[in-house]
Design a protein that fits this description.
GIY-YIG endonuclease; Arc Repressor Mutant, subunit A; 3-stranded antiparallel beta sheet; alpha+beta; 6 strands; flat
Length: 237
Amino acid sequence: MNKTIYIYGLIRPQEKNIRYVGKSVNPKRRLYQHIFNARNNKPNNLHLLRWIKKIINDGLLPEYIILEECNKKNWKEKEKYWIKELIKNKLCNRHEGGIEPPNLTGYKQTAEHRKNESIARKGKPQWIDIPHPLLGKYGNDNPNYGRKRSKEFCELMRKQRLENNGMKGVKLSKKRIKQIKENNSKGVALIDDKGNILKKYQSHKEAEKELNLYGGSVGRVCSGEYRHTKGYKFKRL
């Protein structure tokens, strides 16, 4: 029995632009795999990982839509068609589609392979974008694009992080501790799009616990850092 293969697209909630095209017999489960990889920094696809992490940091989760139903014989052509059709959306896809991933069940990397990969990654800044085979290179305007960090620079940065670790060893004054507690205990109100108060909460934590929101997300909405979190909008009382 031939299983139905779905060509799906990933979108940001409340937006229509598709940013990734894929195929799966279970798109919902595949979506959860994408989210899991992003949350656990498993860069199967670096562009897709960064896009999903940005959505998660905004208090949202990506969604999927079914583009077409196909079968084992024609899914490759259909996936290529949709990637080519939507390339103007700056897709996160790494290739033109239609590629069957190899079966790596039980496969183990050799010690030599792991050693070569480790050597290849050393000294490379992780924030530099890698070339995209469909859209070309990103980050060309950055003066440090493609530049490797020297061993001396890496060692210097490591020492500075150990010696000057932000607030490590700094004691807060009683006044500052009181100020932090007051800010965290301020009441907030859940509002609609027009600013009307729907419900009041005594603290950020109370709102986050009742609405099952990420810790600190309500404060970021109130300060203007986020526009909303999971569709909820707040303001300080």
